[in-house]
């Protein structure tokens, strides 16, 4: 829902961003629940009347939808998820008999959700600032990519070749050994 417009001066774009942020905050504040997310999961808190017992609640978490409310009353939260959740890894608790806390684990742990349910107002996911994560939190492929980027950055700062540049140099050296008859004096690596 980013509304960056290349044709607007920077001051006007900042004003538009501020207005959109206020509108988004008002929409989120109007919801009967609060929510936050990481790439891995969503945490939803829903206030309920003080003294509520778990037997008074209807909580139905499915892979693609959710229902939460007090039995015999209109649902507080109901709708389809924008993406799937892992039902077996998702939980809920009743805290201090006044708040339902849900922890939903995302199936796709590589994307931000614009809303909890598709009928709710969207947030601008381009404005999300993720928490710093530890390398150990990342899957193997992502971790390897991040480690390579970190190594390459260190190499650049020291004026040394990056891993890709080193690979090219090694390939050239190997090729030189295989073809001693060729003149490599004018070869430039870039």
Automatic annotation (TrEMBL):
Keyword terms, alphabetized: Cytoplasm
InterPro entries documented for this protein: CS_dom, HSP20-like_chaperone, NudC_fam
Domain CS as annotated: residue spans: 28-117
Primary location class: cytoplasm
Localisation per UniProt entry: Cytoplasm
GO biological process annotation, one example: protein folding
UniProt-annotated stretches for the region Disordered: 151-170
Cellular component per GO, a single term: cytoplasm
Keyword Acetylation belongs to the record: no
Main function: Required for nuclear movement. May interact between microtubules and nuclei and/or may be involved in the generation of force used to move nuclei during interphase.
Molecular function in Gene Ontology: unfolded protein binding
Species: Microbotryum saponariae
Protein name per its UniProtKB record: Nuclear movement protein nudC
């Amino acid at each position: 829902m980013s509304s960056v417009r290349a044709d607007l001066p920077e001051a006007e774009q900042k004003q538009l961003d501020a207005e959109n942020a206020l509108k988004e905050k008002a929409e989120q504040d109007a919801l009967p629940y609060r929510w936050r997310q990481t790439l891995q999961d969503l945490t939803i808190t829903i206030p309920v009347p003080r003294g509520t017992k778990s037997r008074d609640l209807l909580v139905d978490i499915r892979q693609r939808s959710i229902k939460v409310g007090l039995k015999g009353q209109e649902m507080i939260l109901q709708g389809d998820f924008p993406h799937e959740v892992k039902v077996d890894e998702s939980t809920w608790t009743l805290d201090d008999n006044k708040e339902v806390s849900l922890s939903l684990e995302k199936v796709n742990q590589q994307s931000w959700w614009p809303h909890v349910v598709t009928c709710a107002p969207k947030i601008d996911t381009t404005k999300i600032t993720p928490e710093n994560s530890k390398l150990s939190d990342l899957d193997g492929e992502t971790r390897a990519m991040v480690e390579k980027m970190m190594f390459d950055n260190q190499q650049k700062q020291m004026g040394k070749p990056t891993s890709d540049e080193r690979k090219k140099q090694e390939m050239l050296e190997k090729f030189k050994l295989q073809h001693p008859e060729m003149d490599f004096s004018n070869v430039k690596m870039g």
